Amino acid sequence: MRTPAKLDELDLAILSAMHEFQKAGILELSRRTKVARATVQARINRMEEAGVIASYDPQIDVTAAGFDVQAFVTLEIAQGALDTLTAELDAIPGVLEAYATTGSGDVLCRIGADSHAGLQAVLLSIDRTSAVVRSHSVIVLSTVIERRTLPLLRTLTPAGTAKAPAYRDRRVSPPDSRATDR
User: Fold this and answer.
1) Beta-carbon neighbour count of residue 129 at 10 Å?
2) Is 165 exposed, middle or buried (0-12, 13-18, 19+ CB in 10 A)?
């Protein structure tokens, strides 16, 4: 297990800008955070190496792509069968995510399908896996809160002040009322 990265206010500002302006390059992020391009690049490299930035994959809305039926499935599995189950679930395209959990179930999956019949086919595929003893599913009616990470990151106590002087000065001095954000 990795040691958690120590993020400071500048790291959080860069992550926020990356989230808000997803197509922005290093130069644009530098402008948005008002720090040197090399500083932004170094911070992003450090966060990539630490695993904080895990991917640059596009966020794909499976509902917009035609898979508007989703469900969560709790699986009870045979003792010691997690590795087997992992390989079996990975082979089922409708399994979008799966997590080993505590509680009454052993694994929680999010699945998607293009119809209720498609959902039933995915559920039957899961139930046919050799490791599953029992499953329980609930259908998603609507999304209340989309997948998100920034609100949680913003609860961190920053690891200290940002080392970049321009960023540090920007936080301390009051904003110029004549300045506009372009």
Assistant:
1) 18
2) exposed
What is the end-to-end Cα distance of the chain in Å, rounded? Answer: 41
CA proximity to 89, closest of 106, 68, 65, 64: 106
pTM given for the model: 0.74
Res 59: pLDDT: 84
What would the DSSP string read from start to end of 88-151?
HHHT-TTEEEEEE-SSS-SEEEEEEESSHHHHHHHHHHHHHSTTEEEEEEEE----SS----HH
Round to whole Å and give the CA distance between 94 and 134.
18
Q: Above pLDDT 90, what percent of the chain?
A: 69
Structure tokens at 158: 């920053």
